């Protein structure tokens, strides 16, 4: 389904006319005001800052705030709740064509079970959408971005319980009713395949062991697939010309050597990681390889009558994804040196450098994964997260020279443009963390992504003052020239 003209007009162009340039954030990482306006607690609100967060994300921990032991940067974020007009004005100054943001489920339904939505939450997001439209910026809304009401996690065990399907649909219906006339582009679940690595964030429950062999993970994902498909059906009934996409973490998986065992091992992981969720949401059916996986791991899904028809009949309009790094794998021998990435890890790739946080940098991998996904589905793609987390230094005159970020983004945009020349239908690019925000993986402010610096530090100090980095002016020029200057 072609959303707009994605064909290049001439050989000298890198990006098509109408390309959606912009930035992306998530409510739980920028808004702050975590209990203001009758908002309820979310999963993100219980995640502490610093190194303990990674332990919290990977082990079974109490689903509560322990303020006497830990800090909670998400509670303040960057106070976008009060600064959204200023922030959107800065996005407009850069020339954003679109802005991807998320709505916090708990701002609309504090526990997730209410029958009547919270008007203060509706007013807040309505004001954001109106402000974007005033500046000619297309809103791109993520319905669920790691912001499940905590009550649903504690009461039902999150998406393990089928009850969440109806609660999610009630939430979606309210969003479509109130914002559908002004919002064309939607995504149901952020990084839905993150369930395999950090299920507490996306599914609302914690696990131990190998999540690729965990029945609860696959059952909860099934409930999300049904919920997403029903949301697509509902959105198409309620909103004219709506476009609703899926969203995954994407990364090519390289075998470390040409040993067939390494090749097969990398292939198996890539297929389950990159394509399992998309095969279901884009093709509308469970892939053939999943049957063997279920059988060998004693996974038997509870599938209600009609579920598969719902999934088959309501596939997505586009595939959105985050790209930060590639992964390299080898058949396990016990002596691997592993490196981290966006909720994933792999063995060290000797041909790549890494960021300060150990994420390997691989622009070529973006071109590879764009082609792999498009070759598989022939469905429009949308890069909705890509960026470099780094420590920025504010000079005495207030300037911030983040040439490392400019170089990172430039190389990735060149790779994306090459994929377009390869024939990939690419809708747009929203750089992740276009304004500094709280890191989802580490809970730090010092891991900065933005074009816009926010005076907020890991120790909680700061004024929330905004300032433009060097990359701000660079990205503005990129948008002005539709990427032809990179």
UniProtKB/TrEMBL annotation:
Coiled coil: none annotated. It comes from the Bacteria. Its EC number is 3.2.1.-. GO terms for molecular function: hydrolase activity, acting on glycosyl bonds. The active site is at residue 385. This is Glycoside hydrolase family 1 protein. It is an enzyme of class 3 (hydrolase). Belongs to the glycosyl hydrolase 1 family. Pfam families: Glyco_hydro_1. Keywords: Glycosidase, Hydrolase.
């Amino acid at each position: 389904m072609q959303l707009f003209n994605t064909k290049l007009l001439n050989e000298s162009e890198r990006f098509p006319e109408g390309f959606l340039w912009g930035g992306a954030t998530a409510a739980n990482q920028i808004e702050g005001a975590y209990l203001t306006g009758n908002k309820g607690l979310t999963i993100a609100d219980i995640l502490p800052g610093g190194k303990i967060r990674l332990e919290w994300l990977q082990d079974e921990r109490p689903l509560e705030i322990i303020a006497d032991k830990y800090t909670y940067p998400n509670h303040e974020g960057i106070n976008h709740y009060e600064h959204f007009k200023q922030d959107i004005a800065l996005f407009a100054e850069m020339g954003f064509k679109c802005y991807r943001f998320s709505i916090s489920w708990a701002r609309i339904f504090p526990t997730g079970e209410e029958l009547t939505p919270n008007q203060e939450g509706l007013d807040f997001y309505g004001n954001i959408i109106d402000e974007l439209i005033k500046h000619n910026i297309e809103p791109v809304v993520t319905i669920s971005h790691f912001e499940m009401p905590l009550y649903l996690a504690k009461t039902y065990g999150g998406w393990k319980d089928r009850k969440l399907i109806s609660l999610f649909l009630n939430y979606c219906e309210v969003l479509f009713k109130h914002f559908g006339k002004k919002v064309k582009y939607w995504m149901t679940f952020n990084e839905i395949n993150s369930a395999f690595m950090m299920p507490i964030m996306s599914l609302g429950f914690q696990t131990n062991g190998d999540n690729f062999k965990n029945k609860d993970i696959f059952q909860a994902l099934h409930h999300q697939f049904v919920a997403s498909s029903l949301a697509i059906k509902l959105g198409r009934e309620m909103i004219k010309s709506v476009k609703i996409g899926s969203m995954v973490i994407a990364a090519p998986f390289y075998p470390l050597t040409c040993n067939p065992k390494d090749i097969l091992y990398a292939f198996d992981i890539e297929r389950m990681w990159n394509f399992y969720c998309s095969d279901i949401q884009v093709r509308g059916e469970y892939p053939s390889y999943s049957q063997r996986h279920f059988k060998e791991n004693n996974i038997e899904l509870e599938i209600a009558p009609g579920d598969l028809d719902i999934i088959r009949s309501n596939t997505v309009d586009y595939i959105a994804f985050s790209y930060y790094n590639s992964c390299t794998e080898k058949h396990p021998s016990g002596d691997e040196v592993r490196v981290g990435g966006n909720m994933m890890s792999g063995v060290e790739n000797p041909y790549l450098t890494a960021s300060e946080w150990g994420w390997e940098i691989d622009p070529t991998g973006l071109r590879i994964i764009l082609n792999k996904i498009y070759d598989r589905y022939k469905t429009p793609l949308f890069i909705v997260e890509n960026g470099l987390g780094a420590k920025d230094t504010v000079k005495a005159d207030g300037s911030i020279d983040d040439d490392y970020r400019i170089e990172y983004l430039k190389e990735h945009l060149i790779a994306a443009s090459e994929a377009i020349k390869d024939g990939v239908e690419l809708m747009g690019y929203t750089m992740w963390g276009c304004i500094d925000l709280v890191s989802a993986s580490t809970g730090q402010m010092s891991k900065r992504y933005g074009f816009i610096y926010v005076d907020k530090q890991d120790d909680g100090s700061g004024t929330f003052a905004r300032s433009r980095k060097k990359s701000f002016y660079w990205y503005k020029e990129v948008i002005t020239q539709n990427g032809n200057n990179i």
